[in-house]
Amino acid sequence: MNESHTALIELIDKIEQLGQFQDKVEFPASIQRIWKAFLEDVRNLIAVNGCALFMVEETTQEFVLTHVSPKDFTAAFQKEIDAQIEFGIFPVILKRRQPSITPPLGFGNNQTMVMLPLTTVKRTLGMSWCSPRCRKAR
User: Fold this and answer.
1) Which of 2, 27, 28, 134 has its Cα between 20 and 30 A from that of 119?
2) What order of strands is seen across the sheet that includes strand 100-102?
């Protein structure tokens, strides 16, 4: 098995683990608590270039960018969500309700986007995203 194949399998395993982070947050929880739990799990599992949290605004039912790390990625994540919605990828991920790895549409070259829907039994609360830093397998 080549190095890139091994690295991809390891990333997928870590993303599956990351998908369980919402089990650590009791809903309803504050957005700040969700963000803190997400960042903690992400940083423990994978190296990232940036992370974002989009929450569903209750009155409009639209996704609103609420948190970004680092802050200078704000415009890039907003551009990415706009592109993902426009091309129909975002709704598919929400419907599946599972972590997904997608190519970027607006974020930049040589990136990968990991999207993790935040859901309860009854509704979608938001979507957390991260852009993993690519590393070669050891």
Assistant:
1) 134
2) 63-69, 48-56, 124-132, 113-119, 100-102
Which residue bears the tokens 């091309």? 87
Query: Quick check: pTM over 0.85?
Result: no
Chain-centre distance for alpha carbon 92: 14
What are the residues whose beta carbons fall under 8 Å from the beta carbon of 44, sequence distance 6 or more? none
Number of domains comprising the chain: 1
Query: Is 62 within the bounds of a domain?
Result: yes
Q: What is the mean pLDDT of residues 84-89?
A: 82
Torsion over CA: 40, 42, 47, 52 (sign):
negative
Tens digit of pLDDT for each residue in 32-55? 887 888 888 888 888 888 899 988
**Residue range(s) defining the domain that contains residue 72:** 3-132
Tell me if residue 93 falls in helix, strand or coil.
Answer: helix
Give yes or no for residue 68 having a pLDDT over 90.
Answer: yes
Examine residue 138 and state whether it is found in any structural domain, yes or no.
no
Q: Would 137 be classed as within a structural domain?
A: no
Residue 124 lies in a domain: yes
Q: By C-alpha distance, which of 116, 126, 85 is closest to 19?
A: 116
